[in-house]
Write a structure and sequence with these properties.
Chain lengths: 113, 112
């Protein structure tokens, strides 16, 4: 049973427009959510996070929104740049997972010039 | 700034062979992890070490053993490789268990 789901395997966005990546979770005990970015042949790198006590966190072009009632979070990238083309993973942890990260399957973002 | 270093980057094994994947971090982190990533799936935790001297099973520990050699190094051993262990393996470290993790570049392992 996947506790963290990224239902879009891929997403294509025009350069300069907004990219929105979605993530759903089933475990209401998760209390911290993270987004990682991964380029081919490299390990994931941390991008942005949000605590369950907040509904928004912003860092430059990246904003993460959390809707606890819907068990949904999203990552917005504005404006999208060619270097943003990568696989984005949503991950979560909480007491239930013994504070170990539970990962989604990832969404491949392609930024078209 | 080396961060997390994994060796080797690529390996092909025959079924039944053994090997050890090495991982070292230079960030003085307390916690270290081994993950595997398979196509269409997220990363799955194999084993972790919350602090030097401790190791615990993750989600998919069968067929693997680990050693936290010291604070810097955390190795993953496959005693008898199976084709189901064909995967990309990532080592990671974090300051504490519930903080952001930093990853190595990965080891692509093929078992034939």
């Amino acid at each position: 049973d996947q506790q963290v789901k990224q239902n879009s395997p891929s997403l294509s966005v025009q350069e300069g427009r907004i990219s929105i990546l979605n993530c759903d979770y089933t475990n209401s005990m998760f209390d911290y959510f993270l987004w990682y970015k991964k380029y081919p042949a490299e390990g994931p790198t941390f991008l942005i996070s949000i605590s369950s006590i907040k509904d928004k966190n912003e860092d430059g072009r990246f904003t993460v929104f959390l809707n606890k009632s819907a068990k949904h979070l999203s990552l917005h990238i504005v404006p999208s740049q060619p270097g943003d083309s990568a696989v984005y993973f949503c991950a979560a942890w909480g007491m239930d997972s013994n504070y170990q990260l539970i990962w989604g399957a990832g969404t491949k973002l392609i930024i078209k010039p | 700034n080396a961060g997390v270093t994994q060796t080797p980057k690529f390996q092909v094994l025959k079924t039944g062979q053994s090997m050890t994947l090495q991982c070292a971090q230079d960030m003085n982190h307390n916690s270290m992890y081994w993950y595997r990533q398979d196509p269409g799936m997220g990363l799955r935790l194999i084993y972790y070490s919350a602090s030097e001297g401790t190791t615990d099973k993750g989600e998919v520990p069968n067929g693997y053993n680990v050693s936290r050699l010291n604070k810097r190094e955390f190795s993953l051993r496959l005693e008898s490789a199976a084709p189901s262990q064909t995967s990309v393996y990532f080592c990671a470290s974090s300051e504490l268990t519930a903080t952001e993790a930093f990853f190595g570049q990965g080891t692509r392992l093929t078992v034939v």
